[in-house]
Amino acid sequence: MSRVNPGAYRAASARTIQNEPGVRDSVGSATRTFDANRVRAFGQIDSERWRDWARDVKTHALTNLDRYLEEAEMRLLANGAHVHWAESADDALRVLADVVARHDIRSAVKGKSMLTEELGVNDHLEQLGVRVRETDLGEYIIQLLGEPPSHIVGPAIHKSLDDCRRLFHAHLGTAPDATPETLAAAARDALRQDFLAADLGISGGNFLAADTGTVALIENEGNIRLSTSLPRVHVAFVGIEKIVPRLEDLSGLLQLTARAATGQPIGNFVSLIQGPKTNEEVDGPEEVHVVLVDNGRTELLADDVAWEALRCVRCGACLNICPVYRQTGGHAYGWTYSGPIGAIIAPGMLGLAKALPLPHASSLCGACVDVCPVRIPIPDLLLHWREQAVEEGLTTTAETIGLKAFTALAERPDAFSAAGALLRWTPWSAAGRSLPILGGWLQERSAPHPSQKSFRRLWEEGIE
Ligand code: SF4
Predict the structure, then answer these.
(1) Which residue of 58, 297, 318 sits with most ligand 1 atoms within 8 Å of its CB, as the best mutation to test the pocket?
(2) Measuring from each residue's beta carbon to the nearest atom of ligand 1, which residues come in under 6 Å?
(3) Ligand 1, residues 255, 314, 345, 349: which to mutate, most atoms within 8 A of Cβ?
């Protein structure tokens, strides 16, 4: 289910915190586990060197994007795949509609893919009369619930075990106190029928190696492998930023991504897809379509500062460590990509006005930059978008007035001293709550008592 409404972030996050305390517990617990696993997995390798290397590979690919994309297209065509270029979501969905019509597709199975969420693939298929089934367990859960993913890697991490028990009891008839193993087995049984019946398999693509035309897919459940090999047609939607120069580059990138995402040395299943099955092969689709999707990525690439966000490998590590994301999970962000990565790519891909206030949904603590496997300088990019918002006059009236008033005071030493004296005698916590910017902060915290003497006075008195 695709939806775009970052503008409602403040209200949506407040609603989640107040009305759904279970979300905070589930997300906090899952993200802390993910992060502990990442720390352990990074500790097993020379992670700093690997991160430098991965940053350089992705930077090189992005700065030579046209060349590598054309090379990948040439290889894919030579491998017998169909290649489509989609400038927008509508273009990508048109390709899908064409495939559906030409092959008389009635049912589809789908592997987890954030790009297909971004494009609204499921809604589109349903409009075309195609029954579509998510086959990743987390995606299956949220499809039954009619919700979008809450996390890049763990789409259902905002749900507790009891939530899943109730859901499966209602949909699959499992016992109300079923074990996680029983729930997984029930989902597997139901999905098996969907795999066997599907005419079309849909996937994303974690990487696309230009020199061989190989779409690489990482997963843990085997559902992507089934989705891409059982149905007679496979459509892979791949963001243009997923390109890497050589198949050899995957040896490091697949491992680093898995370690950052879940703490595994590598995903349980890695599928390398180059085209349809050959005459000698018994398994595999008869037709493979690779849709190379832009949908705002070249706009982001054109930004002198924010382009670095396109190195993202969608590991979710920055979400797991983010103290802001941990409070609400992903739905409050109002877009497919949540957390720090969502906040830095939304302005470039959706337009800054539409993406606000996401670049402000951060305390700028910098934890995200410490964990990012491709060294995206996330806090710098958040500040970049905040500066852009000021330059483009996109800040709120209260914020603009507040900052102008502060500037006026800061430029006049006497007025600044007088204002400081006034503040020292003000019931600070109560007054602060009504101020722009500080108001929200102080609703949940007590302000420290101001010093009874100004810094200047203390300095004059010789106190170090
Ligand atoms: S920005 Fe870095 S840490 Fe966050 S999802 Fe992307 S690659 Fe992972």
Answers:
(1) 318
(2) 260, 312-318, 341, 371-374, 376
(3) 314
Q: pLDDT tens across 219-230, in order?
A: 999 999 999 999
Sort strands 269-273 and 214-219 into parallel, antiparallel or unpaired: antiparallel
Looking up tokens 């710098």 gives 380
Per-residue model confidence (pLDDT) at position 424: 79
Amino acid residing at 205:
G
Averaged pLDDT for residues 195-204: 97
On the question of pLDDT at 404 being above 90, the answer is: no
Residue 120: pLDDT over 50: yes
What is the C-alpha separation between 143 and 132, in angstroms, rounded? 10
**Alpha carbons 276 and 234: distance in angstroms, whole number:** 8
The domain 22-297 is placed in CATH, from the list 3.50.50.60, 1.10.443.10, 3.40.50.1820, 3.40.50.10420, at 3.40.50.10420
Q: Which atom of ligand 1 is nearest to the CA of 339?
A: 4
Query: Which tokens in the block code for residue 282?
Result: 């018994």
Q: Kindly indicate the confidence band of residue 464, based on its pLDDT and cuts at 50, 70 and 90.
A: low
Q: List phi, psi (to 5°) of 236.
A: -110, 120
Domain ranges of the chain: 22-297, 397-460
